[in-house]
């Protein structure tokens, strides 16, 4: 699965804001070339929520284990919830895990830095993980949408109170 295929799949979901930082938009240079997916039906970048998925194209400080400095390497990161995390890793996010090579391609793993928060990751997704990526992105999208709608409902009920 290419980055463009992943971006296209997520872009087709209703209410998704895909941020692609680059030169001249005020974003930090380290984020240029990466993609961040939010559920934001109004198209405004959320300031109080994290993206539900990201694609990173390089190592970040403290996050070098996936070896994204290799030519053509990228990693899709997905916050698909505790249930999906347990199903794919065999353990809860904060529990100790069997060590897995975080640079292994086409393998669903706990995110090398944010796994304890329930994030999953795949370096260079391919045929083994394509269906899983689509399923996990769909799950992450629905969770993000539900959070958004729940918060919007809370805000609406507060604003309508006397």
Automatic annotation (TrEMBL):
Occurrences of domain DUF6194 (ranges): 1-152
Top-level taxon: Bacteria
Pfam families referenced in this protein's UniProt entry, alphabetically: DUF6194
Protein name, entry field: DUF6194 domain-containing protein
Annotated organism of origin: Actinomadura fulva subsp. indica
Lineage: Bacteria, Bacillati, Actinomycetota, Actinomycetes, Streptosporangiales
């Amino acid at each position: 699965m290419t980055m463009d295929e992943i971006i296209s799949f997520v872009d087709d979901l209703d209410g998704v804001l895909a941020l692609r930082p680059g030169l001249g938009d005020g974003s930090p240079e380290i984020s240029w070339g990466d993609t961040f997916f939010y559920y934001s039906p109004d198209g405004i970048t959320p300031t109080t929520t994290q993206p539900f998925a990201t694609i990173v194209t390089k190592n970040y400080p403290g996050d070098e284990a996936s070896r994204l400095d290799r030519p053509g390497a990228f990693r899709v990161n997905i916050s698909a919830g505790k249930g999906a995390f347990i199903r794919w890793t065999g353990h809860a996010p904060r529990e100790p895990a069997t060590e897995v090579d975080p640079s292994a391609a086409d393998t669903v793993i706990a995110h090398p830095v944010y796994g304890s928060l329930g994030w999953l990751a795949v370096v260079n997704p391919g045929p083994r993980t394509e269906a899983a990526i689509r399923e996990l992105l769909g799950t992450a999208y629905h969770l993000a949408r539900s959070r958004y709608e729940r918060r919007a409902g809370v805000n609406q009920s507060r604003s309508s109170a006397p």
